[in-house]
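## retry 2 of 3
previous attempt timed out at serialization; input unchanged, resubmitting
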Amino acid sequence: MNKSKIIILLILVTAGACLLYNFTQKHYVEIIDEKELDITVEYHPQFFSMIHSQEKVELWEKAYPDSRELADMKWDFNRYSYVISKGRRVKAMYYSDKSTLIDDESPYYCRVWKDGKKLLRLVYADSITNTAIIYTIPKDTLISGIQGC
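## retry succeeded, writing output
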């Protein structure tokens, strides 16, 4: 092999490694605050809800009308998004191109990437709480959970 072919091969291998790194890199989402709600729920491994608007809060209030904490919460949709985890504490939240394009367990016709969104993945703590926990995160309307169209 001559010198120019080796250089081209090295450039291609380096570019491929960079693309693979960027594709699989996890972007962690900062958890600003967490609050355990007075809602008794059953744990489900992939069930969590993203809240980006007052309309979504109203759906939760209809589903759990006896929750005073949910009704009394101060929502600031200009600065924050919210994640409600059912039945288990969250250690970390992240998204990546790999999780969005490959790990999405939604039916194919309603995958989040089709709407231009990023799939949020949760890393759970070991203990199961049987309550709903709401997490405040920086506002990002492009992140979404698994969709059940």
